[in-house]
Write a structure and sequence with these properties.
10 helices, about 260 residues, 7-stranded mixed β-sheet, single chain
């Protein structure tokens, strides 16, 4: 069994990886914009969307990256958002032959805040989400989505994310728990300096989930990184500032 994925267009290989709890459909408009000049592959990660029945042999970022690699026809530009960005970083670290360039959106090497890492969500917030998933499933997911937009973003973005969340029925609770555990435990800070491929970091200036300081840190650690901060955007700039986002993405892919 392999991941579910869609393929659009012809040209250089590009793979788009979604965030926690969602699925590849969240990239819809970006997929359409890229498919005129690229072969765009859009998988649903294990336990998400139409891969909801796919259970990997281990719930790790490296295994996720390996499963994505299996569906690719060759090296690709990996574009990852949030959890998908962690998978993209793992691909660049563990499967560099499958990567030509990477794009990190709303990315961080470490989601949980600690004394030596202020650019993150407070650990008690993530712990509360983990607790509430067991007792108040759908409202908990909805609250998590509310962190994905800035106070200035159009509220239609929240409605769009909610619609995508439940498009293919409710995400399996076990997969959500495992994915949230990854977000709580992963720490790539010391590893990412080994990444040596062209890298574009796109980050919302007002990201509530991943403070912009995390993007600045990644930009200093990854050798060929370029940072683009989108003013007034939140955690999902490809939805709220779509035209600007697509322009930056196309320039990087084909430049």
């Amino acid at each position: 069994m392999t991941l579910y994925y869609d393929v659009h267009g012809q040209g250089p290989n590009v793979v788009l990886l979604h965030g926690w709890g969602l699925h590849g459909g969240v990239w819809g408009e970006v997929t359409n914009a890229l498919s005129g000049h690229s072969r765009v592959m859009v998988p649903d990660l294990p336990g998400h969307g139409r891969s909801r029945e796919f259970v990997p042999h281990a719930y790790t970022l490296e295994v996720f990256a390996e499963e994505v690699k299996r569906i690719l026809p060759g090296p690709a530009v990996w574009v990852g958002w949030s959890l998908g960005a962690l998978v993209t970083l793992s691909a660049a670290l563990h499967f560099p032959d499958s990567v030509t360039k990477i794009v990190l959106v709303g990315a961080t090497p470490k989601f949980a805040r600690t004394a030596d890492w202020p650019y993150a969500t407070r650990s008690e917030v993530l712990n509360q989400f983990a607790h509430d998933l067991e007792h108040d499933y759908i409202p908990t997911l909805t609250r998590f989505l509310s962190l994905q937009v800035s106070t200035e973003d159009d509220r239609s973005v929240i409605r769009r994310l909610r619609a995508e969340l439940f498009r293919y029925s409710e995400p399996p609770a076990a997969a959500l728990r495992a994915g949230l555990r990854l977000l709580m435990e992963v720490d790539h800070r010391s590893a990412i300096s080994a990444i040596d491929v062209p890298t574009l970091i796109i980050h919302g200036e007002r990201d509530q989930l991943v403070p912009v300081g995390a993007a600045r840190f990644v930009a200093t650690q990854v050798k060929q990184a370029r940072l683009e901060i989108i003013p007034r955007a939140g955690h999902a700039p490809f939805l709220t500032h779509q035209s600007l986002f697509v322009d930056k993405l196309k320039d990087f892919i084909h430049g």
